[in-house]
Structures are given as C-alpha cells and as structure tokens.
Design a protein that fits this description.
The protein is α+β, with helices and mostly antiparallel strands. The chain has a single domain, classed as Glutathione S-transferase Yfyf (Class Pi), Chain A, domain 2 (Up-down Bundle), CATH 1.20.1050.130. It contains ten helices and four strands, in the order βαβββααααααααα. The protein has a four-stranded mixed sheet, covered by helices on one side. The longest helix has 19 residues. The radius of gyration is 17 Å and the shape is globular. It starts with a strand and ends in a 7-residue tail after the last helix. 40% of the residues are buried. The structure holds glutathione. Glutathione binds next to helix 1 and helix 2.
Length: 232
Amino acid sequence: MTITLYELAGADAERRFSPFVWRSRMALLHKGLAYEGRPWRFTEKEAIAFSGQGKVPVLVDGDATVADSWEIACYLETVYPDRPSLFGGEAGREGARFVQSWFDMTAIRFVAQIVMADVHAVLHEDDKDYFRTTREERFGKTLEEVSGDPAGARAGLTQALAPMRAILKTQPYLAGDAPNYMDYIPFGAFMWARCVSPLKLLEADDPVEAWRQRLLDAHDGAARRATCSEAD
Ligand SMILES: N[C@@H](CCC(=O)N[C@@H](CS)C(=O)NCC(=O)O)C(=O)O
C-alpha cells in the first residue's frame, strides 16, 4: 500500500518548501518507506479536510490519517518498529521533543524572517493573497518589512544556533554518529530556506553548515536533489 504525504508546493508543483513537511519527508526516507508526495497549496483546504484540520504535512497510510509532523514521526516509529529508529528509544523521543520545542521557540523565527518575502514570490497566484494576509496579520507588518533586515536575521540565527553548534563541534549529528529525527527537526527549516531563497544562512566554516551539507547528502542525496533556489 502506498503512503501519501500531502506537501506544500509553490507555483512550480515540484517546489516543496514547508519546514514541517521536510521533517516528515526525512522521517520517511530514514525509515526507507516509499511514499507519494502529493502537492498541496494553501488555499486547497478542502483537499485535506478529511484530516480534520487545515495544515500540512498530512500522511495517509492505508486506513490511517495523521496530521502534524511530530505525530507523523511518532506514528511511523510505532507502526514501523523494524525499520531504522527515528528516536533510538523512549529517552531519545523525549530528547527530540525538547529539540523541537527549543528550535520552534527560538531559531525558526529568524529563518522565517529571512524567507517570508521569498516564500511569497514562489507561491501559486491563487495562494499569494491568502499568504500575505495571514502572515501580515501574524507578524503585524508587511512581508517586505519582515524580510527587510536579512543581515540582522542571519546574525540572530547564528546566535540562536549556539547550543547546536557546541554539539556539532564534537560529533557529526545531534543524534551522534548518524542522524535521526532530532537532526531532521532543525534541518527542515534549512530546507525551507534552501527551497525558496538563494541567500546563504550560514558561514562556510560554521559546524552547523558542515552538518547541513552532510544531511543534504544523507539518504542518497534526496534533499540536495530537491527543487530549490540555493545554488550549490
Ligand atoms: N505543528 C505543525 C505545523 C504545520 C504547519 O504550520 N504547516 C503550514 C505549512 S509550513 C501550513 O500548512 N499552513 C497552512 C495555512 O497557513 O493555512 C507541524 O509540525 O506539522
């Protein structure tokens, strides 16, 4: 039975840029599970109404429908226990949950500031007004104002990533010698930026950049091959 993942797409249906969808994509790749990525746009709420909410990722696996990237990771870990583990046990799951909580309350904000105007630029015409209205309401300013200080946002990101950097100075992945879901959480945000923006978020000599490059190559380079705006 084919697994289906609903993935946010731009005007180019191959441009799949959601940071949360990337978490689920990497989780499926890690588990070695084949899946069909179905392009979805912000205004196509009806297409995912069956999931009982209006956001992606949504995963459909046989009779099971799972929304929310964290729930999807937990589902895959429970239902496919014989595949490579996403968490490395219960303590690892809680560790990953902490990484998600930390990252989503700190660093992701700076990535959002950097990419907001670029996201708008790659959207399908049908999505542009919806995106602008909802995000400008959320931020309390225009998209152009949100993305108006990329150097400042980049500096904020560099500082926010200090805890990750300290760990990645001594080991290749947050999870140790090999990546797991703990790594895919922040990596999703870097894919968000890579998919919509040509801007470099990190210095070439930053250990976080070396980690990002390793993850671009992970799982046969699936992330590196994805349709993107970053020049390699
Ligand atoms: N906590 C959710 C967040 C999902 C989310 O915010 N998805 C965005 C795309 S990046 C979305 O579908 N937004 C729909 C909308 O804004 O209408 C998760 O981890 O899956």
